[in-house]
Specification:
There is one protein chain. This protein has five helices and 13 strands. The chain has about 220 residues and is α/β, with parallel strands linked by helices. Strands 3, 5, 7, 8 and 11 form a five-stranded mixed sheet that branches. Strands 1-2 form a two-stranded parallel sheet. It has a two-stranded antiparallel ribbon with strand order 4-6. It is globular, with a radius of gyration of 18 Å. The model has no long low-confidence stretch (mean pLDDT about 90).
Length: about 220
């Protein structure tokens, strides 16, 4: 359908369920539609944010693909500093082993810190310095152009320091951006921490086939 060649998933590791089937279908169909004839594996972990478990399981699997995509995200403030820091170590080792971890930046804008309701949190693992964090764009039918997806997330981690390779880009952005939320003395978000996303791709209202029906998914 849509002129895309069939590309069956080579291996499925873990027990599949219908609970996250729409999100998984969106991921697989996007990957195989863009990178046609790529060998695709599916690792099923459920909704876990234990990136040490995820990365160590994949690294221990013989022949596992070297590029991994994950499209869900969790609030750093809820997940907690201990889990975030342990996950960052796992993701760092993953990169050193020659793997690339691509992660969604998240939905619903800069997530609000539920404890203060006046500061921003961030979405992990997209906020990790050791992943390629991907934001979303959307197509405007009136202008016939892509624009930033209004429901996409981004901002600054609350636990992970900004890596040096981001310094020049972030500082230039902060100087040129004119519509950022007020942030007197860094009270709302910490610009010294990891900024995300790194890149953006088409991420809204994508045709996704699930159980024979075409849905519009983000």
């Amino acid at each position: 359908r849509y002129g895309v060649p069939k590309n069956a998933i080579r291996k499925v590791l873990g027990k599949e369920t219908d609970e996250y089937s729409i999100e998984a279908a969106l991921d697989v169909q996007t990957i195989t539609g863009i990178a046609q004839n790529t060998e695709v594996w599916e690792f099923v972990f459920g909704l876990t944010f234990d990136m040490t478990l995820v990365t160590e399981t994949i690294m221990a699997t013989p022949g596992a693909p070297r590029v991994v995509s994950l499209s869900y995200a969790g609030d750093e403030n809820i997940l907690g500093e201990t889990l975030i820091k342990a996950g960052n170590v796992g993701l760092m080792k993953f990169g050193l082993a020659g793997f690339t971890f691509v992660s969604a930046a998240g939905d619903n804008g800069p997530v609000l810190n539920i404890h203060t309701c006046s500061t921003f949190s961030a979405y992990f693992p997209g906020s990790s310095p050791y992943v390629v964090s991907v934001g979303g764009t959307a197509y405007n039918n009136d202008t016939k152009q892509l624009h930033p997806w209004i429901d996409g997330s981004g901002g600054f981690s609350i636990f992970s320091p900004r890596p040096k390779f981001q310094d020049s880009a972030v500082e230039e952005y902060l100087k040129s951006a004119t519509t950022l939320p007020p942030n007197k003395n860094g009270a709302v978000y910490n610009t010294a921490n990891r900024a995300y996303p790194d890149i953006s791709g088409f991420g809204a209202f994508e045709p996704t086939i699930v159980h024979g029906k075409t849905l519009q998914e983000d």
